[in-house]
Amino acid sequence: MDCPNCSKELSATQQFCPNCGTKVEPVASMEATKPTSPVESKVPPSKKRVGKGLMVTALSLLLIAGATYFGFYQFMYTPEKQIEQIRTAVTSEDAKALAPLLRLKEGKVTEAQAAALLTGLSQAELTEATVGYLDRASRSIGASNEGLPLRLREIGKTYGVFKRYGLELILQTMYVSSNFDAITVSLPDPYGKEKLESEGDQVVIRDAFPGMVEVSVKYDGQYGADQAVKTFNSLESSNQDEPFMVAFEGLSVELDQTYNDAPLFVNGEDSGKTVGEWKTYGPVPKQGVSLSTYIEMPWGMIESKQVLAKPGGKPVKFEPKVDADTIAFTENIITRHAEEWVNFMYYEDLSALTVVTDEAYLAKQRKTYDIMQAENQEWYGSFDGVEVINQKTKLTKWNKKMAIETEAVVGINSQFMTDGEEDAPQRLVKSRFRYVITEPFDDGTYHIVEATYLE
């Protein structure tokens, strides 16, 4: 080795340089402190290639998954695609498919509630059809939904940049009433957000479900106690002036619907609704209530007979009451017929009989005409008058048409001449007939469809 100071060659055992006196470390020590090179780990080339392949595969799978995610949700969650899904569920009235697409007060809607909504939409007269609104919403998410109980909005979670759309239901206000005070209202199957308030003789249900709603109404007052459970459509009317009216079956009476357009009078006062609108009237007091109506006839309005209705009684059937106008109308028809009969006998002209259409009666008149012709007879006389027997006059049916049945005495001044000679002096003949008068041809004219000689 050499001296580190003067470069003189030294032996391995020398510790000091003999030339310059510099201390020299032994060779072994120097060799021991000489840094060693790290041992390189050698990896086979085949394993390096496999690692790189796995990384490329993982990246490819991530890219494919991302593209699939984007493509799937772009296809499924476009507003147009989602609105078309809602539209299909509504038009097909598929409650099961529609329920997940509805929200009520931020909560989910059951299949039964979706069915109640669909039924309500189909029955209510809304200013616009739901499908019309959805068609407009597909062109503009913010389309107006005026008059509809629903609106399009974002629902649930979003998926990245994609949004989910559904229909938010708009709550309604319902007014429930009865023709009597002292009613209480409850909801057998509430969804939990409704508010019930009393306003006078009505109960207001605020935040009611939009569609068919089951309502329980109880009555407990001076007329007894009763309960009725009715299903109402909250979309049909939320007008305080037109509340949902409830009639109680236990304390009510069924109304015959023969005159369903006639107004119903209770104890002589107009109830404000027709017989057809009531169908069932109640509650009825234990002592009963007087019901009547007015029926429109060609000769005027006729009051019906008053019926004392009691709870649990038979259905109320209204019978028109024969009044002075009915008698006058009947007398006018019979008078016209009597005058035509006088002309027929005098002129021997069967065409003069236009008021009567009874074929049996006309056949007898033709026989009278034939006998007069055969015996060379002539008749002279005049009409004296008609007296309608009020007690025998009633309103009835003829071939399912409203008719008047009556009896009347017809007075005729009568005289027969044979070959120009008097058979007998002229005398007043009074004959009693039974008549049925109606409108047989639906042309607005009334005729005698039955004319029967009694005495």
TrEMBL record:
TM spans (from-to): 54-76
Coiled coil: none
Stored InterPro entries: NTF2_YvbJ, TcaA_2nd, TcaA_4th, Zinc_ribbon_dom
Record's keyword terms, sorted: Membrane, Transmembrane, Transmembrane helix
Source organism superkingdom: Bacteria
Residues of the TcaA second domain: 79-168
Domain YvbJ-like NTF2-like: 334-428
Keyword 4Fe-4S among UniProt keywords: no
Domain Zinc-ribbon: 3-24
A Pfam family hit: TcaA_2nd
All residue ranges annotated as the TcaA 4th domain in the record: 252-308
Keyword Ubl conjugation: no
Protein name: Zinc-ribbon domain-containing protein
Protein species of origin: Exiguobacterium marinum
